[in-house]
Design brief:
The chain has about 280 residues and is mostly beta strands. It contains three helices and 18 strands. Strand 9 and strand 10 form a beta hairpin. Helix 1 packs across helix 3. The longest helix has 18 residues.
C-alpha cells in the first residue's frame, strides 16, 4: 500500500469493527482507529474509504471523515481559538485545534482574530503545525501562466498598491487597488485572472476576466440586466464612470466595449446616455 500521508487524505481499508469504531489498515503504521462518530452507516470490514489522518491528544495516529479547512501543504485563513504559554491554537474544523508555536508567529496571535498561515509537518516533533511565517513556502519557480488564465486566489494582506494574494496555493501575486471593484478582505477566497507575469516572475492578477472574455462575459450580464429592467438602462457610453461602476462594478472601458459588442450583434439601440433592447 502507499505510504500514509499525515495531515492529508488517504484511502484506507477497514480491518475490523469494535464497539468504539473501526480499525483501518495502516500498513507499517499498524491499525488506525476511525472513531464511531465518524463511521459511515453500513461500513464493513474490507470496505475502502477516504479519511483524513492526524494526531489525537495523545499523539496517536487517528482517522476522521471530517474535512478540515486545510491540509498539510495548504495556505489558509484560520481563527485563533485559545492561547497558552507555548503558542496559539487555531480552529481548522477538527476536534483537536491546530497548534502555531510562538516561534512561528510574526506577532503574538490573539484569541478571536484570524491569520493567514501555512500548514506543515514539524520535522522535530512530527506534529502538524501552522506557521504565520509563510514567505519561504511559496513556489519560486517561474510561473507558466497565460494572460487571462483563471486562478484561485486567497487574499493575503493589504499593501500600498493593493492586496497581496496567494495564487493556486503556490505563488504570490498582487491585486492592484485600481483594478478592484468590490470589497476585498484578508482571507477572502476568490476567482481571479492572470493579468501579467513579469520578467522577474512576479504576477499581477485581476478579479475580472481580461480581454475578449471580459467583454463577452459583461455583455451577457448587461443583456440580462436589460431583460430584467423593461429593456432599458439609463447609462450609455457618455455616462460618468463612477455611475457605471456603482451600477455594474466594471470600468467605463469595459462597459463601452460591451455596448459595442451588443450593438454590432444588433441586440441593442444606443444613445449617448442610455441603451435599450432592439
Amino acid at each position: 500500500m502507499e505510504r500514509l500521508r499525515l495531515g492529508d487524505y488517504n484511502k484506507m481499508t477497514v480491518v475490523k469493527e469494535v464497539d468504539f469504531g473501526v480499525y483501518l489498515d495502516g500498513g507499517d503504521e499498524g491499525e488506525i482507529l476511525l472513531p464511531k462518530r465518524y463511521v459511515p452507516e453500513g461500513l464493513r470490514p474490507g470496505d475502502e474509504l477516504e479519511v483524513f489522518l492526524y494526531l489525537d491528544q495523545e499523539e496517536r495516529l487517528i482517522a476522521t471523515t471530517e474535512r478540515p479547512l486545510a491540509k498539510v501543504g495548504d495556505f489558509a485563513y484560520l481563527e485563533v481559538k485559545w492561547v497558552n504559554e507555548y503558542g496559539a491554537f487555531l480552529g481548522w474544523g477538527l476536534m483537536k485545534d491546530l497548534f502555531c508555536p510562538f516561534r512561528e508567529q510574526k506577532m503574538r496571535m490573539q484569541v478571536g482574530k484570524s491569520y493567514i498561515v501555512y500548514v506543515r509537518i514539524d520535522e522535530e516533533s512530527y506534529r502538524i503545525v501552522a506557521t504565520a511565517k509563510i514567505d519561504k513556502y511559496f513556489d519560486f519557480s517561474f510561473p507558466q501562466y497565460q494572460h487571462g488564465e483563471e486562478v484561485d486566489l486567497l487574499v493575503w494582506q493589504k499593501t500600498d498598491l493593493g492586496f497581496k494574494a496567494i495564487i493556486d496555493n503556490r505563488f504570490q501575486g498582487l491585486l492592484y487597488q485600481d483594478q478592484i471593484f468590490q470589497y476585498v478582505h484578508a482571507g477572502d477566497r476568490l476567482k481571479g485572472y492572470i493579468d501579467k507575469v513579469r520578467p522577474d516572475g512576479k504576477i499581477d492578477v485581476t478579479l475580472q476576466p481580461t480581454g475578449p472574455r471580459q467583454t463577452r462575459d459583461f455583455a451577457e450580464t448587461l443583456l440580462r440586466y436589460l431583460r430584467e429592467h423593461d429593456g432599458a438602462c439609463d447609462l450609455g457610453d457618455k455616462s460618468d464612470a463612477d455611475d457605471i461602476y456603482d451600477r455594474f462594478h466594471v470600468s467605463k472601458k469595459v462597459f463601452k466595449r460591451a455596448i459595442g459588442d451588443l450593438y454590432k450583434r444588433r441586440l441593442i439601440l444606443v444613445s449617448p446616455r442610455s441603451i435599450r433592447l432592439a
